Amino acid sequence: MRTIPFPVVDEVARHCLQEEEPETVHIEVHLPGRLDPSHLRKAFHEALARHPRALMREARGRWYRRRYTWELTDRPDVEVVTFPAPGRDALRDARTRALTTAPPLTDSPPVRLEVVEVANDLTGPTGSTGEAAGSRAAGAAPVGAAAPAPRRQAPPSAGRHPGTVLLLTINHTALDGPACLRVLATAAEIYGGRDNSPAAPPVRTAPRPHEPATRMPSNWSRPARVAPGTPEPSPGNGMLLTDLPLPHRPRGAPYTVNDQLMVATALTLAHWNREHGDRPRPLRITMPVDDRPRDMTMPMGNGTRLVEVPFAPAELTTRDLPALLTRTAARTRALKSRPRPQLGHGATLLTAPVTPVAWRAALTRGLRRAAAPWTSTTLLSNIGRVPYPLDFGEEAGRAHAVWFSAPARMPRGLTVTTASTAGRLHLALRWSRTLLSHGDGAHLRDLFEHHLHTTDGGPR
To answer: What is the DSSP letter of 96?
Structure first.
């Protein structure tokens, strides 16, 4: 049997596992029609076989071994595709399982696909345990003295037709969201018999020659933390999903939609912290960068590298948003272009197999606790435009909404994940219940929607 040593990202994640807040990635795909259970199960199993690096489990080993290793298997150890009984709470319960129960690393593959039939395909927000909260009333509540956010238009398919939700739960120690979305796209092609090749990436505007270089704020200062809201007594993660219009990006603007999302996230957290009486501090937002191809050659596993985008307190105002967007664009371009190991040079050194893995695990956990005050404020993971049609054929149809959510353990305690499909922005807020409640999540959503709308105000 073929074995592969744990890469750096996998080993660090394996060292720091917690039962209270599992490291899961949740992907939720909404389809307008129904799927045949046996046909889908066969298609997903065949898709896993076409991406064999996804068929893996953690190999057993003695405490003094110097590496964790993955064993690649020829077939799944367990049934990966399940079909919960339809019902009013079926989707809520599946979302809850995605946040509370990680697929075990000892079974191949460490993913779980739940296929939920919904009587009304509501694509509105969810409660802090994944409980459906129904559609929001049109229009957001005013944010302080700011202008109200635009009225939200429901997606054409929301609430009109019965449909299916594919809810994929991934153990993040082994795989990430983009890799598993590639597997799901392969399954869609096998199931529906239609081309699900990735679309060409959008053409980016080249930076203007006269654009001045910007000096980044120092990364040595301790960044702001997300101010505590109303913590809940039970541990774990809460989650809220919502559907927004894509922000307008003026033609020829030197920034991207990702930069608009970055600025909206920074302004939201600065606003939230001011409301909760925290003194202004620098913000640092972790941003995953994924350079992998999206076709069948895409490597499986955890393939993103993490960069940190800094913001000085004085920058976080809406007085000159075009300048803030331009500075942010220059920073994100510079950070993306720098060659850097996935988790930095320190993690590479920490995972060198020179001592037993159990010793390195204890050291890693201790360093993680010691470094908590210097951990970035939050993580913004923008998947961008979903590159695959996710077309499951005539009866099931093509995906009209896709959400992702990333783990939200402390000390960050909050992650923001976005993707766009069919001209809409799908936003997932996920938080640690030891920091925030569902009401706090709803308020953060309103703040984010407002500040994202303000980034539309650039020159047109």
So the answer is: H
Helices (H) and strands (E) in the chain, counts: 9, 14
Block residue for tokens 């976080």:
316
Task: Tell me: pLDDT of 372 over 50.
Answer: yes
| pLDDT confidence of residue 124 | 40
Nearest-10 crossing angle of helices 8-15, 357-370: 80
Helix (H) or strand (E) holding 14: helix 8-15
Give the whole-angstrom CA distance, residue 406 versus residue 424: 20
Query: Hey, what are 402's tokens?
Result: 């896709």
Rounded CA-CA distance 179/301 in Å is: 7
Output the CA–CA distances (angstroms, integers) from residue 194 to 89, 111, 174, 186, in the order listed.
32, 24, 29, 10
- Nearest-5° angle of CA 10, CA 11, CA 14? 85
| Rounded-to-integer distance, Cα 451 and Cα 29, Å | 26
pLDDT one-digit tens code per residue, 52-89: 999 999 999 998 899 999 999 999 999 999 999 999 99
CA distances from 386 to 12, 161, 383, 426, 427 (A): 28, 23, 7, 10, 13
Distances (CA, A) of 310 to 177, 180, 288, 314: 25, 30, 14, 12
Residue 215, classed as helix, strand or coil, is coil
Query: Is the bond preceding residue 411 a cis peptide, omega within 30 degrees?
Result: yes
**Closest by Cα among 159, 133, 130, 134 to 26:** 130
Fold category of 3-457 in CATH: Chloramphenicol Acetyltransferase (3.30.559)
Q: How many CB atoms lie within 10 A of CB 130?
A: 26
Domain segments of the chain: what residues?
3-457
- Residues 22, 235 contacting (CB under 8 angstroms): no
- Give rounded-to-5 percent helix, strand, coil for the chain: 30, 20, 50
pTM: 0.89
Q: Are 240 and 126 in contact (CB under 8 A)?
A: yes
Q: Residue 457 and residue 460: Cα distance in Å, rounded?
A: 8
Least confident of 213-227, 331-345, 378-392: 213-227
10 vs 31: CA distance, rounded Å: 32
Question: Phi then psi for 329, rounded to 5 degrees?
Answer: -60, -40
